[in-house]
Write a sequence for this structure.
């Protein structure tokens, strides 16, 4: 993220059996673990739903169907000591490959090649404060 710039992103809520598919993250400065639905930066000329389709293919090699818009949240945050500001289009969708719903986690990678893990987390863990999901306000849209 470029300092001093607002970034537009799109994320997708994928739910199954009371669980959410989320990326694991860790803030080295705060020494805290967090989670975020998959998605990423909206490219110039790309609609939010197109971003979801592209990002899921790039990150976990999965096709998303039934993509539908849920709402927008504004996310002002600090990550690894740097301030960030995002306008987040939030979508819901389904994975085309039902086998992915049975996997405990999925190996994933960013467009720069860095690896991360996508996992299924119980929605109740976020609602009860046992785990943290970002951006703020996303749970209200689920």
């Amino acid at each position: 993220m470029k300092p001093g710039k607002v970034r537009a992103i799109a994320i997708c809520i994928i739910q199954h059996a009371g669980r959410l598919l989320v990326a694991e993250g860790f803030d080295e400065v705060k020494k805290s673990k967090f989670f975020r639905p998959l998605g990423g930066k909206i490219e110039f000329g790309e609609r939010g739903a197109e971003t979801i389709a592209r990002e899921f293919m790039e990150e976990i090699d999965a096709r998303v169907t039934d993509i539908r818009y849920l709402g927008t949240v504004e996310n002002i945050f600090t990550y690894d000591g740097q301030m960030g500001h995002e306008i987040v289009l939030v979508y819901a969708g389904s994975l085309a490959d039902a086998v992915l719903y049975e996997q405990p986690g999925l190996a994933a990678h960013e467009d720069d090649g860095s690896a991360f893990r996508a996992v299924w987390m119980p929605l109740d863990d976020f609602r009860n404060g046992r785990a943290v999901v970002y951006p703020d306000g996303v749970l209200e849209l689920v």
User: Anything to note?
Assistant: The radius of gyration is 14 Å. The chain has a mean pLDDT of 92.
